[in-house]
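Hey forum,

I'm writing up a methods section and want to include a predicted complex as supplementary material. The small molecule is zinc ion. I've pasted the protein sequence and the SMILES. Can someone with a working setup run it? I'll credit the forum in the acknowledgements.
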Amino acid sequence: MIVSLNWLRRYVDFDMSARELALRLTDSLTEAELVDAPWKGVTGVVAAKVVTAEPHPEADKLSVCVVDWGGGSSTVVCGAPNVREGLTSVLAPPGSAIAGGRRVGEQTIRGRRSHGMLVSAQELGLEESSEGILELDGVEPGADVRSLLGLDDEIIDLDVQPNRPDCLGMIGVAREVAALTGAEFRFPGVDLNEAGTTAAEMAAVEIEDPLGCPRYIARVISDVTIGPSPAWLATALRSVGARSINSIVDITNFVMLEFGHPIHAFDYDRVADHKIIVRRARGGEVLVTLDDIERTLTPEHLLICDGKNPVALAGVMGGVDSEVSEATRNILLECAWFDPVVVRRGAWKLGIRTEASQRFEHGVDPKAMEMVAARACSLMAELAGGQVAPGLIDAGTDGGAIPAITLDVHHVTSMLGEDVGRDETVAALRSYGFGIADGADGKLTVDVPSHRADVTIEADLIEEVLRAHGYESVPPEVPFRSLETSPDSGQAARDHVLEAMVRLGFYEVMTTSFMSGNAIERLGGSGVRGEPIELSNPVNKEMPFMRMAIMPSLLDVVRRNRNVGEKDLRVFELGKVFWKDGDGLGERWALAGAMAGQIHRQSWDETPRPVDFFDGKGILWAMAEALDIDTPETACYDSELLDAGASAGFSVRGDGLGFFGMLSKRVRAAWELADPVFVFEIDLDRLCGLIPTAVEFEELPRYPKARRDVALVVGERTAAGDVLAAVNALGEPLLVDVQVFDIYVGKQLPPGKKSLGFGLTYMSRERTLTDGEADEAHSRIVSHLTEKFDATLR
Amino acid sequence: MLDRLTELGREAKAALQSAASVVELENVRVKYLGRKSEFNQVSRGLKDLDPDERRSVGRAVNELKNALGALLEQSKERLESAGDEPVGLDPTLPGRRPWVGRKHPLTRTYERLESIFRGLGFEVALGPHVEDDFHNFDALNIPADHPARDGWDTFYIDGDALLRTHTSPVQIRVMESRKPPIRIIAPGRVYRNETQDASHGSEFYQLEGLYVDRGVRFGELKGVLIRFMKELFGEDVTLRFRAGFFPFTEPSTEVDVECLICQGAGCSVCSGTGWVELLGAGMVDPRVFETVGYDPGEFTGYAFGLGVDRICMMMTGTDDIRLFLENDLRFLRQI
Ligand SMILES: [Zn+2]
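Reply by user p_vandermeer:
Happy to help. Structure tokens for the complex are below, copy them as they are.
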């Protein structure tokens, strides 16, 4: 809401700088910003009368004028089409400044000297665009036009919140200013001079949809003369960025901005049967609105109709057919209360939002409608010479009595933590227009003014008291009552994983939760479950889905970084993934990572080598070690995402948690990645479930270990992992560790064979093992393996 | 004879100085100063010389013996203190540095916030990102078709499913599942269907706080937020509490912090006002309590919410919120 301080002064006197007023409103109401008015910097301009205006001898469109500026006369060259003898306009003499502080000087235009210039509304910053120079009827030459044109006005931009529709009108803001300065608030004057035939005899109103339109007031004003508005009215509208059109239209806008209640003027003679019917639109019904657009309507739209046709889209915009024009002589004035939801939906369906619809959406004051209508009638009589028909047509209801609220003064104290006191509480509420009566037990009975429909419960009243008292004034307390806390929601385990990955040299990233259709396809089903969740209104049409896996956006990170020269990277993300299946919508946490580039940082004695499968696998196993998750297993994993020769599943105790491996050529091509990339994605919820929550002390071993090695010659397709698993499965009590220390394929072996070297460590917790005991255990394992894998010893 | 001694001395000195290990030094000692060394033979043969020669050679032998003895000690010290390092090491060459990982700037910011609130007795609660209309709006006193909803540009899925526009629905979920006292923070990603620019993302991070108990007061809300801000920005931070509007708190307040960039003088970060809006807060609206089945006559509480991205930007001077989700390593490394 743009607030003009000159306009505000019509209802309240305050002697406070604009800057201080903005600060005080910000503290007690809502953010108020003092803005630079477009006319800021205008100085030294005066009213001047054109004495003579003659065509410029050297230029068709220019005139050479002598103007009287009160203290003398000057010659100026003027290019405006409306310049003429006898016109009073505004002169910017040499040394003055126009909008933006632009200096005016003397200049020669086609051989004639111009001592300053006659100016337009645009040149003074009063309008964004205007034609011709300003016309000021009845102003004496030399008069100071600063206040007349509002050049001394200051502007505050008020960020009105949805709960305070009253502040979408100057009167609502004025009430706030009165409360915070202690000044008196004045209603604008109304002088109707009703005469002639009564309104009830001249027109009728019928409400067919009382839910959409609970109340409708109509008044009739006859014999108006439509012409330009007086300077004060045009100035007021311009000060808040509205345009002056003609006196009648300007009055409807002015009253809307004054009360925050939109009203509409129909051409009485173009309203068929002089009758207003408020009803829902029929499907497919058509109305051409004031902006000349043909609107096709549905039963969600509320219409104002005359005896024959729709004439306005209720609360949103008038129709062209009943629009007020230069020829209009009689006015049918509408002041209505439309349902906020009906107006909001109707406007939304048509994709329009007007000053009127916005105000109806937020809610208007149904009990102020007589006043609003009377104010408009009074101005039409005063400024357009109209005759106000006696009485008004009032259909519907004003919503009935507003229930009083009981306020327990002690609750103010218990809610704020400060004893504000009964007297201050009462004074605070009175200052905002609430009525107070004492009730039983020191409780107050509070009457809510009709323009404060947002106040419905005791807590709302306490906020009013706090606004008046000052948010800053309440003393801060540092409480501390201790509280038992309950176990956390898995956050600690995820933090543990995060720490582990960072310790392993990975950068944490955070990527978008959205995903493209392409990405789903490229993933080839890896690590996803169910169907994708699609947004009805994505911000980026290319990415309408919730991500089912982190991998696609992680690969975007790899590509983005490679494109800026960051080729060696190790990144991971902990984030949510989403899906839809028979059980509805699902979401869970996932961990994904990628490694690309060189395995080591560049160094003076290390040979560069790109990241490979075992580098990545090592990271995963190290992560498991850091999390105290023992024995992850390598499972088979088939996916188009990964290279067939270097892909595997990550599982623990037979439970598949995810995948890892080298990105396939096809997927690398899709992401424009030339070099090898190791990737993994794991179900984080299940991984976290495997992290032991408690560890138990075990006595440190007191006896030495004995190591025995064995080299088994096996078929070249025998998996080392299977051999290790067989060793572990045997459950030899003395075995404490087994490692692969060598793999050999070559001339010393028969074709189709390879040698696997294992180092096995034996130990007893009870005594020092003898060589014989270690050898015995070792030979049990070796003979089991030779049998199981058809192996020979090398 | 004297010439030969001079020559021997030169050889021995060079050998002692260049010995590269204690063992080598010992060999040098045996060769030049040992019982069977030429030098020893010369000293033993002194008695066979004539007195003049004996005097001059004897003096030379003594001088050389002392000099070599001192040099031997020096070399021994040098080699012993050098330990077992190989010769020719250049300690100014860079070491073999492993890769160092790093948490995302928002994670580090959040951890800072979390540790402050944990210190103030709050625990962490989380909620789903795909929410329903009830928890995201209705239960928070933001009815359908009300202009208050315009404050949240929402991503819709279908039916009443949507992406949460704030972390406030976690308040509702916690209150639905537990009885007071409750003191939680709820961090996490939220979604707004907004055109992105330097200060608006469509995915960003919030942190919500909620405290419900008997007799919780507005003064306590102020106390906690002031304590929090001081821990975060230092004891000198200046705050301003002013009127605000949130449908789910009553009274509501906006909390500004004096611009850390210009110290309140006015700059581009604070749009010349000297203040930066950092927090929204208020006393929980009794209608919210009624929705979750708490008796508003028995319990009161406060809630607050803040933007984690915004705090990180403020603390680091990052001027574009989109950098957080772009994950350019050059950015992640510096912040
Ligand atoms: Zn600043």
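Some notes you might quote in the supplement: The two ends of chain A are 90 Å apart (CA to CA). The first strand of chain A starts at residue 2 and ends at 4.
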